[in-house]
Amino acid sequence: MSTHPEPDDQQIGRDDLTQPVDDPTVPPAPAPEQQEAEEQREASAPPPQQQANYAPPPRAEYSPPTGPPGPPPGYTAQRVPAYSADSTLTNVQLNYWLTAIFGWPAVIFWAIDKDKTPLLDDHLKEVLNFGIVRVIAGVIWAIPVVGWILGAIASIATLIIGIMGALNGPDAYKAGQQYRYPWNFRFIS
């Protein structure tokens, strides 16, 4: 048994390679008579019309927009404090909602806003404690079978309690009152 392929009956020789092959993708060359007729047509055709010299219109000078030069007389801009009660309320609302859904963002809000005011600090600690409870409920899921059932119940319960806190906690903060989650453990006081 030979590893070389058997020669075909039709072998290609060197002379066969030099002969032209009809390729259907290449258009045939025009006959010499057609080339001469084409050249005569091009020579007798009138030259293409050249466009007149076109110059763009002159540029207009830039003029600034017209309008009042500034604020009306007697107007002074009001300065907005960098840390206002509205931004604090917004942060408290965001803290309550993110902790109700995820559990862990309370740590970030507590680290940023702690020790600013006693009321804010109280709300931040309450939400942080609830966030720790949410994380513990999520860790219970890691226990096979029993943890899946208890983890599901605990996660649903803490989600409902978290939504209740997100709805009521910012209102209590706005009213200057403390808010306490039901069934919350106070790890940080």
- What's the story with the biggest beta sheet? none
Secondary-structure element order, N to C: HHHHHH
The proportion of residues in beta strands is under 5%
Annotation field: number of helices: 6
State the end-to-end CA separation: 90 Å
Shape: elongated
Average predicted confidence as pLDDT: 78
Helix/strand-derived class? mainly alpha
How many β-strand runs? 0
> Portion of residues in helices?
40-55%
Radius of gyration: 42 Å
Which regions contain 5 or more consecutive residues with pLDDT less than 50? Answer: none
Topology, please?
Elements: H1 14-18, H2 32-44, H3 85-101, H4 105-113, H5 118-140, H6 146-174
Helix pairs in contact: 3-5, 3-6, 4-5, 5-6
Task: Summarize the structure in short.
This is DUF4870 domain-containing protein. The chain is built from 6 helices and no strands.
Plain-language structure description:
This is DUF4870 domain-containing protein. Its main location: membrane. Keywords: Membrane, Transmembrane, Transmembrane helix. It comes from Tessaracoccus palaemonis. The chain is mostly helical. It has a domain of 90 residues. The protein is 51% helix and 0% strand. The longest helix has 29 residues. The model has no long low-confidence stretch (mean pLDDT 78).
